Amino acid sequence: MTVEPQAAFLTEYAEVLGAFWNRVKGHLLEWRSGYQWPPGASPAESTETRTRLERRIRAELDGRGCLSKGTFDAVIRWGFGTDSGCSDQEVRQATGLAFGHIRANRPAEAAMELLKLPRIGISRASKVLALSDQQEFGIYDSRSGHGLSDLALSGRRIIAIPPGRVIRGDSRTSDGYCRAFAEYTWVLRYFRDRACEDPSLRSAFSRAADLELAFFVRSRSGLLETTTRRPGAPEHLQRIADQDEENTFWTLGQDASLRNSGLFVTTQR
Prior knowledge:
It contains 14 helices and 2 strands, in the order αααααααααββααααα. By secondary structure, it is mainly alpha-helical.
């Protein structure tokens, strides 16, 4: 009998996942409560922005099975402060294929379709995919990946970390980052299911994205070791993993069209 990849993965790492969960579960509420994005937004505003983007994405997928450039770019501006640079035709074709894979529960293949777009790496791709269904997915970037950096077996990280400006991360091919996105998704769902069994956690962690928010904050809190990436990182890593958004957003400035869209209200610091 063929074992599904998710089941095989969770069985292989069951012991280390359980030990990690027991170690971090007492801190999750504190971490989750500190989530802020963009910088300067309150936690409530940050969460509401994601909800509005999710509704916008779901409405287009329900109506046409793909995303328009306008909606795709709204997600990219939220994360990076700039548009994707992709054409409307490119976005519609790639997202139509990607969300076909999502409906079939193939997150790695979905991410790979988006990585075929120019200037789209795993961080940007995962934002679009994850915000389509926060119940089942979380954003996979250098910070959220780094928040799981001590989830390891025999000294080897279970979830690869995409390189960022602050987080050096792990060197992977496009296929490797997409497989890691799938594995990261399975880990978030495992922790979500564990949280739902805990009366003190179930209301705050009913979605995979709620765990992503907590691990994002854990990374930024300074609780985990970070290593600044050396200058001159390989070009292929910069392209397929994306630059870490936390430094680029306010360097570029909050895009005026996003400010006027009503997607969020925030005070710049």
